[in-house]
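Person: I have long wanted to understand how a fold can be written as tokens. Underneath my words sits a plain record pairing an amino acid chain with its backbone structure tokens. Those tokens are not coordinates but codes from a learned vocabulary of shapes. I should like you to check that the lines agree and flag anything odd. The protein I mean follows directly.
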Amino acid sequence: MIYAIPNDGEQITNHFIKAPFIAIYSDGDGLIDNFVNHAAQAGSSCQSKSQLLNQIAQHNVDAVMVRNIGERSLEKLLKRNIMVYRVGCRAELNKVIYAPRSALTVPSEGRPSINHAKKHLHSHNDGHVGNGCGCGHHHETASSHHHSVLRRGRQMGRLAGAMINKIGQQ
């Protein structure tokens, strides 16, 4: 079996996309490759993440070993029929494939992205086509998304103001 392992050069890292390197291990041959994860670099984009998934597929990876993974990345790996296992502890690269693990089988087992809405709050006049940026999911129109974010912001502002007034009255 061939595994992809997000790592810092020595151990599995805490998050798949944020790992500086991705090691490719074979349970028969050991370390095959340990390439730079461009998706972890500052200024990376949805395209960088897609390229990472393509690199993993090009190595004929059967399974990815992670400590944590976002639900969108997990969904994309599962759609490519790549198994994903959560490892319960940090471990050295040469020991990760033998560490206790549990299979992740549905995207909701990944972590939700708190930055997703922020990253995709953009005008679709910026070179993107339609309601997508090529990252594999559907965006609201910029206008409707922008208005819903503003509405939530106003609601939070009113709540904060009410709390401050209440504290001031005590």
Notes: Residues 142-169 form the longest helix (28 residues).
